[in-house]
Amino acid sequence: GTLGVAVIGTGRMGADHVRRINEVISGARVAAVVDVDAERAKAVAQGVDGCTAHTDPAAALASDDVDAVLIASPGPAHEATLLAAFAHDLPVLCEKPLTPDAASALRVLEAEQRLGRRRVQVGFMRRYDAEYLRLKALLDSRELGRPLMLHNRHRNASSPPWFTSAMLINDSVVHEMDVTRWLLGQEITAVTVLRPVPSGNAPEGLEDPQLVLFETDGGVIVDTEINVNCGFGYQVQAEVVCERGTARIGDGHTMVTNAAGRWGGTIAQDFVERFADAYDREVQAWVDATRRGEVTGPSVWDGYAAAAVCEAGVRAQREGTRITVDLIARPALYH
Ligand code: NAD
Ligand code: ISE
Hints:
The chain contains 10 helices and 15 strands. It has 2 domains: 147 residues, NAD(P)-binding Rossmann-like Domain (Rossmann fold), CATH 3.40.50; 177 residues, Dihydrodipicolinate Reductase, domain 2. By secondary structure, the chain is of the alpha/beta class. The mean pLDDT is 97. 36% of the residues lie in helices and 24% in strands. (2R,3S,4s,5R,6S)-2,3,4,5,6-pentahydroxycyclohexanone binds next to helix 7. This is Inositol 2-dehydrogenase. Its EC number is 1.1.1.18.
């Protein structure tokens, strides 16, 4: 039957996921929404037939109408809702980050292992982006030989007022941590962070941009420019350098115009626009797998590994040195 979804957190992402499930996704409906801000929850529920509004996730998860949970509250609130969903035996799509640090991610990892089967897909949506999928297929084919280096650019038009220098690593570069691990099929073993003179475009005190270097257990070197006040738009680009060639995605050249002595195109302004198709595919894949009784996509292990790299990255930034990443052995459930 149709999957009844509870959406926890109805802010920017949550409200967009409610719209998506309502208008784009087949096989699911929004049965309940939850937000600590009662007015916000009510306003979002109003637009959806038969959707109830709550301020406490526990009430929504206990409802007979709810078969699955989409978590889009802020990262620090994820752990409590994940554990509550496990207690109700409900499948979960959890927005990145799984949790804000490695210790809390490990608690979720242990709780899921106690269930004895996977319950969670983590919202690393780039794995569902058409361009990233092409790049992954090319790398897996080994047509260009082995990958040696990966260059990433991650640019946001502007950062929200509460953004900190650490968040460039654990809120933004966390996506490059995941795509690096996924594209290469390797773990990240060390992180170094270099900081140029801050941009005058960035708020006072924010160390923006930064250059983040990863080393992997397969010997690949990965660099990421994170630049969250570039002013001109939202850009995510990746170029892999392999033994017999290179491949690059994210140029956004879907249409090039020529006019008045210039050529060019447009640049997306935010992630909601740039990754619209990826979010659609991510949520549809979750709904389809859930209805088959399966769990696919980025796992709690992937969420934990990213959290561990984030911690190393924030230390590398603060201490100005190379920091190694220590992961526990990968449990059997995630092989
Ligand atoms: P937001 O601040 O716009 O929305 C968060 C909402 O959650 C707010 O309405 C807030 O009132 C509510 N909330 C806070 N604590 C809650 C709790 N305990 N229970 C229920 N609701 C609670 O934030 P956002 O930008 O929508 O981010 C939400 C999540 O999505 C975060 O985990 C963030 O990292 C992630 N995110 C992912 C992407 C992506 O590209 N995949 C992009 C942006 C944000
Ligand atoms: C945000 O939370 C995201 O997840 C976006 O994808 C990223 O581009 C942005 O920098 C983050 O703040």
